[in-house]
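Checklist before submission:
- one chain only
- standard amino acids only
- sequence pasted in full

Submission:
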Amino acid sequence: MSAATPAEAPRPVIVAVRFVYALIAVLAISLLVRAILYTIGPADAALSVVSGVLYGLLAYYVGRGKNVARILVWFSAAVVAASFPILIIGNVVVGPVAGSPGWYFGYTLAVSAVRLGLLAAASILLWRPAARPYFQHGPRS
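Returned file contents:
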């Protein structure tokens, strides 16, 4: 018995895509807060904008059923999870970024935690059995 790939995205995929779009909103708000309350350089601003665009493309292609985008969401969650302890250890060993206000490390840690939470939730939803058929192309056995 063979079944075709579902035409509409299942609920877990829809929610995962919304989580990635929420991540873009978090990145945009973070960029605005840092730009208003703390001087950021053009390279940092450009990196935030590029990250937002890439996450937007990722969300779009996950919503279209592209398996490579689903895998990239998992990879992105792993990278953010790996960078989380590095952020903490770096601040303890090296100290805060020169010239940064006292609130900056806590703020960066909070934004990273929210990013990790959103990506982890999206990854789990995309891993669920209900989402898998949407990412299989053509007939399956």
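Reviewer check: The chain has a mean pLDDT of 86.
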